Amino acid sequence: MQWTLVIPLKSLSRAKSRLTATAGDGLRPGLALAFAQDTVAAAVACPAVRDVAVVTDDALAGRELAALGALIVPDEPGEGLNAALRHGTAAVRAKRPDAPVAALNADLPALRPVELARTLDRAAHFSRAFLPDAAGIGTTLLTASAGTELLPAFGVASRARHTASGAVELPLDGIDSVRQDVDTGEDLRAALVLGVGRHTAKAAAPLLIAD
What we know:
This protein has helices spanning 20-44, 59-67, 81-95, 113-123, 158-164, 176-179, 185-194, 198-204; strands at 3-8, 49-55, 71-73, 101-104, 128-132, 139-144, 168-169. By secondary structure, it is of the alpha/beta class. The protein has a 7-stranded mixed beta sheet with strand order 3-2-1-4-6-5-7, with helices on both faces.
């Protein structure tokens, strides 16, 4: 099975506000873009992924991510993460109604194609499935097989909400890079330990992040 990934990305000027203490407002937008670039690059390189749709209204991000092979879908609802995911999924399925879709966070700078493929292969056994983040509270991936609604419930405590919605939690072993999203300086340190992509490595170079 090959999946279409739907990746939501808010305006870079507003993205990753919790990184301000670590990076300041000067570096923060560039880090948010770099995270998305490394996420999309890894997703495009994954053999289990057919294509990638990024839902964003940010012009710079749209240009940079399109250059990596992503389809850019304007965020017409403009009503937050879950609305963007519903809109992106509808846009994908308007062209291919039978497409299995997966919502993926845009802040996975350590993402490895082989681990993403392993996760999606596990998800293929279920109508809906999800992967909790490294903190064990949120969600980094939500999948829906052909003919199944995605029903995204991202946000605070989304692990519990996705469980309550009937989605199956996937096994956690061997897929650390798919779980390590970045919201804080501590998250960024953890991602750097795993090994980030070239865009994040360059954007994070000016920062002195202690172990």
